[in-house]
Design brief:
By secondary structure, the protein is α+β, with helices and mostly antiparallel strands. Helix content is 22%, strand content 36%. The strands form two sheets. It has a five-stranded antiparallel β-sheet with strand order 3-2-1-5-4. Strand 6 and strand 7 (66-68) form a beta hairpin. The longest helix is centred in the C-terminal third of the chain and has 13 residues, at 78-90.
């Protein structure tokens, strides 16, 4: 399945696989989060947790330790919080 990168809501870690979430559907790909993070454009995507990479354009709200996307609330880890907030100030 070919996906338009801009339509990806978020990417989640599933062991040795990743789940790419697009419009409520999940596509499973055999790759690591680290590799996905390097392939996705950093201008659009940001890692917020060891298990999640999000699309900036899908963010609806950021609270203390969570980010609300179109249809999902995801945790923000302490490790990636500072990076996310500093990148949000650039937009």
């Amino acid at each position: 399945v070919k996906l338009d990168i801009t339509e990806i809501d978020y990417v989640e870690s599933i062991g040795d696989y990743i789940g790419v979430h697009v419009d409520g559907k999940r596509y499973v790909v055999h790759t690591t989060m680290k590799e996905a993070e390097t392939k996705l454009p950093s201008s659009i995507f940001c890692r917020i947790h060891r298990s999640y990479i999000i699309n900036f354009n899908r963010i609806e709200q950021i609270e203390e330790n969570t980010v609300s996307l179109v249809d999902k609330v995801l945790p923000i880890s302490r490790t990636y919080r500072k990076n996310l907030l500093s990148r949000m100030n650039m937009f």
